[in-house]
Amino acid sequence: MVFCYAKQDLDDGGTAIDLHFCCLGSKLWLPINIQPILGEAPGRVPLEILAVDRLIRRLTHPASPVSLPIREFTTTTVLTIMLQNPAQKYRPFQPIQISDRTWPSRTIIQAPIWLSTDLRDGNQALAQPMSIDQKLRFFDLLVQTGFKEIEVGFPSASATEFEFVQRLINENRIPDHVTIQVLTQARESLIRRTFESLQGAKQAIVHVYNATAPVFRRVVFDHNKPETIELAVAAATLIQQLAQQQSDTRWRFQYSPEVFTSTELPFARDICNAVLAVWQPRSEAKAIINLPASVEVATPNVFADQVEWMHRRLDYRDAVVLSVHPHNDRGCSVAAAELGQMAGADRVEGCLFGNGERTGNVDLVTLAMNLYTQGVDPELDFSSIDTVAEVVKHCTQLPIHPRHPYVGELVFTAFSGSHQDAIKKGFAQRQSEDSWEIPYLPMDPADVGRSYEAIVRVNSQSGKGGIAFLLERDYGVVLPRSLQVELAQVVQRVMDNSQQEMSSAAIWQLLYQRYGSSAGPLVYATHSLKTAGDNNQVQQLALQLDRNGDPWHLEGAGNGPIDALVAAFRQNGIHLEVASYEERALDTGSGAKAFALVDIRGEDQSQSYWGIGVHANLTTASILAVINGVNRLLLTLPDSTVQQRQVLHS
């Protein structure tokens, strides 16, 4: 259903819409003044779009007929509307009839043969194809990562592609354990040009394809089935002949029925077996039959059925490497590749991070890391996944989504408070020898070269767990739970106002400002401490404070500095208790600072007044923490607490 509408402002201040739509072959012209229907347009939705929506609703309900005068308009906009019955336009893919399918009960226990087609399928999908220098850099990356088969181009397509293949060969850039692959259509001139590009190669795979799907046979090439098979056989024969003429190269051949997923399975079998009959592969010289899902047309289980059907019916099966080449049109290419392996595929073709035509090829990084997190060696090395990503982004000029599995900036990051709390507890309980089992983290970020720095990040959705995690990780400070809750509320208010993420440094600064440099009447000046009593068990404290701008001297004695300080305050009318006290070093080495945290309680013991102190001297840090807690206590006292108010202002 397609709609065209034109808009015109009327003299009376209204707006008129002339709507023309075509539905099932019928055409109607219907004008309407939209003000009586809509009033004012809500939000940012254009008024005319709302008018069309409302008019459609009225047209689909005959009880509300539309009958308005026709007007003339000068501008027209076209709207395409999704069909209410898409079956009128699209046909569902028919399931494969296999009553004894075996793939659902299988498990992937080893890595497939990997083929990177980044330099061919990935490159041809770029708005700006890679330069030769970029392709050389990408090729080196693929070799370093561990790929042993790399499709390097379509050398008969352009001079650049041809030159790149020749440079790889002539500059000895191809390690002995790596085999390059090149693609060609099933056309004589292109096949001959392809072999020219491979002169001097130690080993190579020639990959030939022709279109086999009905729509291509009918619409694009006007070939029937016998003609299509004849084309494939002629190409296979020529490839074999040309290979014999260049006997210094160790040759392997690959054939792809394009598009396999839309090709009738019996015909796909027949054309593949016809090609294999020409090549007559042996176990020591295997041919490759590649099943390309160049367009993903069905669910992954259907693709697995197609692969298993072919797996059972290919001739020379023991001498054939069965390969799959999934694309991601339906967003299921990774699942299709995994189920395809369970169905009998030995090899997977794809691209790093899913580059490729339209929605891309299957993402080989995700496939490999999926194996890794199941305890299977993927035989590819992504220990420095950020380096891999930087090279790919540079060469393709494409971004990588921050949520992309395993590599995205945010894939190991939790903003949610409950997730952060679970992660914090998981790390706290984990022992180094344990299997990896951390909530919300399916793998250890360190395995791909990531630090734990980005695991927890704080925004307005975060909670106490994330805040506590950052402080413990970056500052070694473990906050009591009640303080975590209190600080989280402070952070939440700041986040709601700023609408920005907070770093651990910003959280630390907020913690210190609120609890370590509390505004109040008391300011530390200096102190002295000496011991007395039997065995020097009593400590006597002399403390000099600034009280509202005036000097204030306090003295007290106790079994330690904190006890003596509490006694000094009590003797001067400030009644308090220290409910808890913690201390730790913030850093290591000669420049380390001490961190002290105290929970101050008033006479009724009902509320915590937290204070922190940071100083190079531990005793001084402890005294500062108590003073900061006392300041917070005094600032919350009601006016009726006359005695303590008098103490502060006497």
How would you characterize this protein structure?
By secondary structure, the chain is α/β, with parallel strands linked by helices. It is built from 20 helices and 18 strands. The chain has helices at 35-38, 47-59, 118-124, 132-145, 159-170, 188-197, 214-221, 225-245, 265-279, 300-313, 333-342, 364-372, 385-396, 417-429, 464-475, 481-498, 504-515, 561-571, 618-635, 642-649; strands at 2-9, 15-23, 26-33, 77-80, 113-116, 149-153, 179-185, 203-211, 250-258, 287-293, 320-326, 347-350, 522-532, 538-547, 550-558, 577-585, 594-601, 608-615. The strands form four sheets. Strands 5-6-7-8-9-10-11-12 form an eight-stranded parallel barrel, surrounded by eight helices. A four-stranded antiparallel β-sheet has the order 3-2-1-4. It has a three-stranded antiparallel β-sheet with strand order 13-14-15, covered by helices on one side. β14 (538-547) and β15 form a beta hairpin. The chain is elongated, with a radius of gyration of 37 Å.
Q: How would a crystallographer describe the biggest sheet?
A: 8 strands, parallel, barrel
Number of continuous helical runs: 20
The residue fraction in helices comes out at 25-40%
Number of E strands: 18
Q: What integer is the average pLDDT?
A: 86
Terminal-residue CA separation = 85 Å
Indicate the radius of gyration in whole angstroms. 37 Å
- What overall form do the CA principal axes indicate? elongated
The strand line-up of the biggest sheet is 5-6-7-8-9-10-11-12
